[in-house]
Design brief:
heterodimer; A: alpha/beta; 36% helix; B: alpha/beta; Elongation Factor Tu (Ef-tu), domain 3; 2 domains; 5-stranded parallel sheet; 6 helices
Chain lengths: 456, 230
């Protein structure tokens, strides 16, 4: 088969894929009596499917042309120098924090026992890397409405042992970056910015994920763009980029991509530790690393999704604004989401806390919504320290984490993702209205919302 | 190291400097990614295969300025099979494929620096020289050797940069007239600098001689940076 024949056959296959998408996956009208309103989901079209199949026809499997295009396109979107595609947002967090423990950072490296400040109400994989690296998590509380770190508690949490801050922009709302960056500068701290839920959010007009020394994104289907499984580590610090790549790629010192050799020109002429001089650089290990790489097929979806990101962000903002306007009359019973000064959130979800004196419980409301096929989710872990895996960890806690406990008891969210159209929004608003007017599900007895985010 | 990108390019211009030394100007199909002066690119004459593997390629210092996002230039001397093929095949309009940026041969702009360049080895420094601002405070002294006066390909650029930057000095060493580029000719100037880093770029034999001479002047090993290849 000639190259031209192969290209022609590939085009035929991809045209069939497009036809399959149109006949199998194209949107159909919403039926409120049958269809669920998901809290999140993959939003894709035939371009995504063609891209995926195109990569599969290459059958390179591991990182190749689509990974390069996705990494460079993602770096361009954020305006950073480096982006490393990994197999999940949780892996991205693990790589990002572990990179800061590298001996290559000299005195600035994080060492066992160093403190890392984070919040108690979040997602476990923002916190787990701290513990997995032998560091001490310092937990502070969050505020209502934005569900981000309380700035006063954050200031109070800093001690002489504090070396880093690792925080997520909760549900797309940027945390108080003025305060955080001031502390980072004053105390010489590292900032790891978990941007998994906030792709496209801005603070003072600048994209989140570009403030930290290193930041992360997630592409699980619940997120702003998806690759199925997948995540990204980004930084504009080339030294951190090299270290992060090493951590991702088995801990090796060499940065050649798979299938490449000697791009540095020094593969057999360097000295590392007590290894024999000239030991093959491809097999020199400078870190205790992992293999957290993703595939070129995932990247192919990412390339197509990235082209749609601006539209996705706009849809999320539009849906959130519509829900917020519709919920305003119920503010006496619900704490509605707030937009802190200087922020323009790219909303992950529409989050609500049932007030103490609302006259109904969160479970009453979520049971009603779920009965109307409107998915609800708790704000991830609630107070993480009440979970079995975290109950006995060594930690320092600032304050009583009362809000984190309240989040666990009274907060939930519904979706704003681009798959929610006007008909679905109408259905959601109607369900909220009927509940607020007294409609109830018989037998609803305070069941919590479904388990938290499956998102990284 | 910034994200490495593969970019298809079109040869825009080929400048023949004589004695099988050429400068190639490339028109990239995508904006040139950010790179640091002193970094290099891989250049392939054949497209990426259907198996996805990068084809046979060679590395070349990026001679153009990092400020230019819509063009790239490299300079090479014909030394083997691959560069021989370049000499035969590269004409305006020809497609080539590059990936970049690579390398850590990057000059610390905050410290005094001595640059030794032999022949086309100057291209490891040209991007740096073009990046210097008029108010650059650290001193930079360039010693640029070539086999004869016609092969000072970048002498006009060096002169232009020096005219613009008060702290940049340069010496051209015409090997036909002055003998091989060596440390002795540079030492009176080097001795006036504040613990400079010394950067070496050129043929392997020249690098070895310069390293030996620098050690003879008690220049610490850590201060000698070499653009060396296997």
């Amino acid at each position: 088969m000639t190259d031209a024949d192969a290209a022609d056959l590939r085009d035929q296959i991809l045209d069939l894929v497009g036809r399959f998408y149109r006949e199998r996956h194209a949107a159909r009208p919403f039926d409120p009596g049958r269809d669920a309103v998901r809290y999140a989901g993959r939003v894709f079209d035939e371009v995504d499917m063609r891209s995926l199949v195109d990569a599969s026809l290459d059958f390179y499997l591991t990182a190749s042309r689509y990974t390069e295009a996705f990494e460079s396109g993602f770096a361009d979107y954020l305006g950073v120098s480096d982006a490393l595609f990994v197999n999940s947002g949780s892996s991205a967090n693990l790589v990002a924090l572990t990179a800061l423990t590298s001996p290559k950072l000299g005195d600035r490296r994080l060492q066992p026992g160093d403190e890392v400040i984070t919040v108690a109400a979040g997602f476990p994989s923002t916190v787990a890397p701290i513990i997995q690296n032998g560091l001490l998590p310092v937990f502070v509380d969050v505020g209502f409405g934005h569900y981000n770190v309380d700035p006063e508690q954050l200031r109070a949490a800093v001690s002489p042992r504090t070396k880093a801050i690792m925080l997520a922009h909760t549900l797309g709302v940027p945390f108080d970056l003025d305060t955080v960056m001031r502390l980072v500068e004053e105390h010489g701290l590292w900032l790891v910015e978990d941007n998994c839920d906030a792709l496209g959010s801005t603070y003072r007009g600048r994209l989140t994920g570009t403030f930290g020394h290193i930041a992360t994104s997630s592409f699980y289907p619940a997120h702003h763009i998806t690759t199925g499984e997948g995540g990204m580590v980004v930084t504009s610090d080339e030294r951190l980029a090299r270290i992060a790549q090493s951590i991702r790629d088995w801990g090796r010192d060499c940065y050649c991509a798979g299938g490449e050799n000697n791009t540095c020109g020094k593969r057999f002429s360097q000295q590392f530790g007590s290894l024999p001089y000239g030991y093959d650089h491809k097999y020199v290990y400078s870190h205790l690393g992992y293999n957290l790489k993703a595939t070129d097929m995932q990247a192919a979806i990412g390339v197509a999704q990235l082209a749609k990101l601006d539209g996705f962000v706009a849809a999320r903002k539009r849906n959130h604004a519509r829900l917020l306007a519709a919920m305003r009359p119920y503010e006496d019973r619900l704490i509605l989401p707030t937009t802190p000064p200087n922020t323009d959130p790219s909303w992950f979800a529409f989050v609500v806390t049932v007030r103490d004196d609302a006259g109904f419980s969160r479970g009453d409301l979520t049971a009603f919504l779920e009965a109307n096929r409107i998915e609800t989710r708790g704000l991830f872990s609630g107070n993480l320290l009440r979970h079995p895996a975290f109950e006995t960890i060594e930690r320092r806690v600032v304050g009583d984490l009362a809000n984190s406990d309240a989040v666990m008891a009274r907060t939930f969210f519904v979706g704003v993702y681009p798959g929610i159209d006007d008909e679905r929004l109408d259905h959601m608003i109607d369900a909220f209205s009927r509940f607020m007017d007294g409609d109830r599900v018989t037998g609803a007895g305070g069941a919590p919302p479904a388990a938290g985010r499956e998102n990284t | 190291m910034a994200v490495v990108r593969r970019i298809a390019c079109t040869v825009r211009q080929v400048i023949d400097h004589g004695e099988h030394v050429y400068t190639i100007e490339l028109q990239p199909s995508l904006p040139v990614p950010r790179f640091r002066p002193g970094q290099f690119l891989h250049l392939a004459l054949d497209p990426v295969g259907h198996d996805g593997f990068w084809p046979d390629s060679r590395v070349f210092s990026i001679a153009s300025s990092p400020r230019e996002r819509d063009r790239l230039s490299i300079t090479y001397a014909v030394k083997g099979t691959f560069t021989g093929r370049m000499e035969r095949e590269l004409v305006p309009g020809r497609s080539v494929w590059i990936k970049l940026p690579y390398g850590e041969f990057v000059i610390d702009p905050t410290r005094d620096a001595v640059l030794f360049a032999g022949g086309t080895g100057i291209t490891a420094f040209t991007a740096f020289l073009q990046s210097l601002e008029p108010d650059h405070t650290s001193r930079v002294e360039l010693f640029y050797g070539a086999r004869n006066a016609e092969l000072f390909v970048f002498a006009p650029l060096v002169r232009a940069c020096a005219a613009n930057v008060g702290t940049l000095g340069y010496t051209l060493v015409d090997e036909q007239l002055d003998g091989r580029l060596g440390v002795e000719v540079a030492w009176p100037t080097v001795a006036t600098l504040d613990e400079p880093d010394v950067y070496l770029s050129g043929p392997p034999s020249m690098l070895e001689v310069l390293r030996t001479q620098l050690r003879g002047h008690d220049v610490a090993h850590a201060r000698i940076k070499t653009d060396a290849w296997e």
